[in-house]
From TrEMBL:
InterPro entries: H3K9_Histone-Lys_N-MTase, Pre-SET_dom, SET_dom, SET_dom_sf. PANTHER family: HISTONE-LYSINE N-METHYLTRANSFERASE SET-23 (PTHR46223:SF3), HISTONE-LYSINE N-METHYLTRANSFERASE SUV39H (PTHR46223). Residues 306-434 form the SET domain. GO terms for molecular function: histone methyltransferase activity; zinc ion binding. This is SET domain-containing protein. It comes from the Eukaryota. Residues 241-301 form the Pre-SET domain. Residues 1-22 are annotated as: Disordered. It is found in: Chromosome. One of its GO terms (biological process) is methylation.
Length: 455
């Protein structure tokens, strides 16, 4: 099911979508909704996730500081500085203040320098040069416990500060990884260098229509299939198998793939005839049948994303509508994105929650939450297809059905959207987000709205 992170993007955010929408806009920090875009968030997340040895507590602190309004404002000032002489003592003191909060609580090492560089959108090598000023603070904090001091004149550090022996090891490590920091700088450059623009390698694959305002879609990476986060293992091989039907699955009820379905074969004339089926198991490349097999409805569907359009709604941000009529039971599209594990999802949600985003599906079909099963999630904040922009309705015209093709590994279920009724041309396509929060400000306008305020 779609995970409700309690609210959506505000209407002023540049990437309103599914997952986003004006519906639960938070007005307390409008600058955050205006400042962050999906690409910036994605770069931040991927870089912080690459620092693999940081603890969960530190990750949470880093995420929180990244969203901090104070550092949003500071970054904007730093990004517009053209020459080092424009960096005032005031600005340096603000950075020292942030770094000090880490030094007193965490072991200061090259990974932490990289992380702090990400937070303030500054090349880590510049963050490193602030350490010589910080050394005075650290020296004082250890003065009552640490008497041995080390002369760092041989390290080449600025001002050759005298500091406690307890942090000499950190300096030695920093000296050894300067080249690594330079590589890290180049990977982060788009964040901290205002002159570096994101690569425009993919043209927008969808029709977009906006007669409401001047907003444009944010830069996103559009994909036609799911891809795995680096720390998600491949599907288990024992779940990659197919049927052995010899008659191209003409005896459909006897097909072993169909027998995985809880309610039998759910299609008639290529259309879904019931939605209370649990999941759909289609034949695949391991089967003895070919693509004319009747159990390949999703794979052979005639509907495609080119028949859909992203458009600007009057009050709910971006939405999706169909440019052609859709018959009841038709497969409309698949929801795709980046497959992430529960820990990655939890750490990302710190950012998502603070930015009023709801950007992933829990792939929880068939899992017992009471047993603490480790489910995967589908994050579509940055890597996505058109379904990212589908809005919520309490009377949705699409239904969500999990399905399996190349693997029957429950963790790698895919998400399909089918028409619950006939849908006429130019009608908005909507989903039921299954939101449980009674305070949700729903703008679906349906007479069946579950969130209507009692008078």
């Amino acid at each position: 099911m779609l995970t409700d992170s309690s609210s959506h993007y505000s209407s002023s955010h540049s990437s309103r979508s599914i997952i986003p929408s004006k519906q639960t806009a938070t007005e307390s920090t409008p600058i955050l909704d205006q400042y962050f875009n999906p690409r910036m968030i994605y770069l931040w997340l991927k870089n912080i996730e690459a620092i693999i040895h940081l603890s969960q507590a530190l990750n949470e602190k880093l995420n929180s500081d990244f969203i901090s309004l104070e550092w949003v404002q500071h970054r904007e000032v730093m990004k517009n500085i053209k020459h080092t002489r424009e960096i005032t003592t005031d600005l340096i003191n603000r950075e020292i203040s942030l770094i000090s909060s880490y030094v007193t609580e965490y072991s200061f090492n090259h990974e932490l320098i990289q992380a702090i560089g990400i937070i303030i959108f500054r090349p880590p090598k510049y963050v490193k040069t602030i350490w010589d000023t910080l050394a005075d603070v650290v020296n004082k904090s250890h003065s009552s416990q640490q008497t041995e001091i080390i002369d760092l004149s041989e390290t080449g550090l600025p001002n050759n500060k005298i500091i406690p022996a307890c942090i000499k090891e950190a300096f030695d490590g920093l000296t050894q990884i300067e080249n690594e920091l330079d590589l890290w700088d180049s990977r982060l450059e788009e964040l901290w260098n205002i002159n570096v623009k994101p690569p425009q390698k993919n043209l927008l694959p969808y029709s977009v229509y906006n007669d409401v305002d001047d907003d444009m879609l944010p830069y996103l990476e559009f994909t036609t299939e799911n891809f795995k986060h680096w720390n998600v293992k491949d599907p288990a091989k024992e779940f990659s198998y197919g049927c052995t039907c010899r008659n191209n699955c003409r005896d459909i009820e006897a097909c072993s793939c169909i027998q995985h379905c809880e309610a039998g074969y759910p299609f008639k004339n290529g259309k879904l005839i019931r939605s209370d089926i649990g999941a759909i198991y289609e034949c695949n490349s391991f089967c003895g049948c070919d693509y004319t097999c009747p159990n390949r409805n999703i794979q052979n569907n005639n509907m495609n994303d080119k028949n859909l359009q992203i458009f600007k709604t009057s009050n709910r941000g971006w939405g999706v509508r169909t440019l052609k009529p859709i018959k009841e039971g038709s497969f409309v599209t698949e929801h795709v994105g980046e497959i992430i594990n529960s820990r990655t999802s939890m750490l990302r949600s710190i950012c998502y929650d603070k930015l009023n985003m709801m950007a992933y599906f829990d792939l929880d079909y068939g899992f017992d939450s009471d047993k603490g099963s480790k489910i995967l999630c589908l994050d579509s904040n940055y890597w996505c297809n058109i379904s990212r922009f589908m809005n919520h309705s309490c009377d949705a015209n699409l239904v969500t059905i999990p399905f399996f093709v190349e693997t029957k590994d429950m963790r790698f279920q895919r998400i399909g959207f089918f028409a619950q009724r006939d849908i006429s041309k130019n009608t908005e396509l909507t989903l039921d987000y299954r939101i449980q929060n009674p305070e949700f400000e729903c703008l679906c306008g349906s007479k069946f709205c579950r969130f209507k305020k009692k008078i």
